[in-house]
Amino acid sequence: MIEVVLNDRLGKKVRVKCNKDDTIGDLKKLVATQTGTRADKIRIQKWYNVYKDHITLQDYEIHDGMGLELYYN
């Protein structure tokens, strides 16, 4: 179990607990339940790398306590 911190740069910082073998799509669903936005309207990225929904957190080498950027489409 790892904890990922997502910051939308508008004042909202979300902490989500998930597994390493969860996909980015699963992470979006967890973030959507905490923020109240729809999962299909969320984009997760780090710098200029936009993360794809079907790839796992472990494949992207996302570790415990890592910070990601949260954007709304």
Automatic annotation (TrEMBL):
Q: What is an example of a Pfam family matching this protein?
A: ubiquitin
Domain of life per record: Eukaryota
Could you confirm whether the keyword Cell membrane appears in this record?
no
Which keywords has UniProt assigned to this entry?
Ubl conjugation pathway
- Residue span, Ubiquitin-like domain: 2-73
Residues making up the signal peptide according to the UniProt record: none
Query: ATP-binding among the record's keywords?
Result: no
Q: Which PANTHER family match?
A: UBIQUITIN-LIKE PROTEIN 5
| Name assigned to this protein | Ubiquitin-like domain-containing protein
Organism field: Coptis chinensis
